[in-house]
Request: fold
Amino acid sequence: MAWIESHQELGQHPKTKRLARALQISLPAAIGHLHLLWWWALDYAQDGDLHKYTDEDIADAICWDGDAAQIANALITSGFIDQAEGGTRSIHDWYEYAGRLIDQRKAQDDYKKRQYALYNDLRLTRAVKTRDGDYCQYCGKAVNWNDRRGADGGTYDHIDPEGGNDLDNIVVSCRSCASKKGNRTPEEARMPFIFGGYTLDNGDNTVDIRQYQAENTQVLSTITQPDLTKPDHNLTKPDLTVDTPPTPPQAEGEGVGLRQKRFDEFWRAYPNKVGKGAAVKAWGRIKPNAELHGKILEALERAKQCDQWQRDNGRYIPHPTTWLNQGRWDDEPMPQGREPPQGGKFDTLGALREIIHDAEGGDPIDTS
Reply:
């Protein structure tokens, strides 16, 4: 069952009241039309992009029986739909409402595809079992391949959760450890390998687990390694009475610390500081390297000078999460900010009229 966040302040929010006044309908009716729009978008505009839908499509989606252009313009002027300089429309702060559902759907779809490909690659799974035996590479327990649900059941785990299905990225694991590790690397989960030899990517650096084990023989020498030359049923469970060896130290590179520093720099520069937790998650998914980080900051400085971001004290600046998820640093440069008229205020209605007029392909109009 799909769902979106519906905040309690929506009923008394100035934007909702503005929409109700523009359409000359009751406040509960405006709230209902908004939810119909959002529910429809969950199926037909999952990224919030409305560029392929007409005014009539939107009116039909929210069960509006009146003029289609009226409802579309009311949603734009009240701030529930964003319209870019080129006329492209999108649902305002859509990721804030449906982001978790979108991420969950994509993650589930990607996981199912990758697991299907893995379990159907018999050559790969046979090679992994030949190398690792029937032992979990995180805790060392003997796994039960016939147990499809229990904690001791055997499964295959991706060392790098975002990596591919290849021998260097797949290990045997018990279901308990696979669940505990989750969508993290062994370093992030603080779950070093008990035995085996693998090289983990840590940005521009690597951690060779076999080398790490050689440097910690005092701790690891008491762990009995399985003899993979024997048949599976003759394997003996390793002695795991010793403490788990410490996590290999991370060298300086593209690790979590540097990623956080780069995000902090982005956050200080972004003018609309809302939804920081969601923005951190979006930044973590992007994982900008030094080049992309610089590109993002340059694009941000350009955006801060554009007319749209300077209008009405930054009212039209998107949430940082929306800006990141949509990759807005690749947008074409927008027009620079205009000088305000005498009195120090922008003519907001006049600017909106120009935007709508330009989008409809008309000649320039005189707003003086």
